[in-house]
Amino acid sequence: MPVTVRWHHDPSHPGSHEALDVSGHGLRLRTHASLPEGATGRVAGARGEVRLDHAFVVAWSRPVRNLLGDIDHHEAGLRFLRVD
Predict the structure, then answer these.
(1) Is pLDDT above 80 for 76?
(2) Whole-angstrom Cα distance, residue 18 to residue 30?
(3) Count of beta carbons in the 10 Å neighbourhood of residue 17
(4) Which is deepest, 21, 34, 73, 75, by most CB within 10 Å?
(5) Residue 28 CB contacts under 8 Å (≥ 6 apart), including other chains
(6) How much is the pLDDT for 1?
């Protein structure tokens, strides 16, 4: 599912990424580079009638390697922030 990420430190430059899986608490994102833990932003996207629009914090980020051991891409866990 493609999602749009707007970083709180630079909201005028949104990026498009692939959400690999989504739960009620966060999502796992495929990225081209490592993301800094603790960075915050807002993620938005839709799959059919299901809409996604949440503030988040980067909980973790790691490289994903191919069979030769080279970094193929990165993945990051985004934890949704709740405002009650």
Answers:
(1) yes
(2) 5
(3) 20
(4) 75
(5) 19, 20, 21, 75, 76, 77, 78
(6) 86
Query: What are the residues facing 59 on neighbouring strands?
Result: none
Question: Span 21-37, mean pLDDT?
Answer: 93
Q: Return all residues near 33 (Cβ < 8 A) that are at least 6 apart.
A: 74
What's the predicted TM-score (pTM) here?
0.87
Q: What are 21's two structure tokens? A: 């899986």
Work out whether the CA dihedral 12, 45, 80, 27 comes out positive or negative: negative
Is a pLDDT exceeding 90 seen at residue 42?
A: yes
Distance, in Å, from the CA atom of 71 to the CA atom of 65, rounded to the nearest integer, reads: 4
Instruction: Extract the tokens encoding 77.
Output: 């866990």
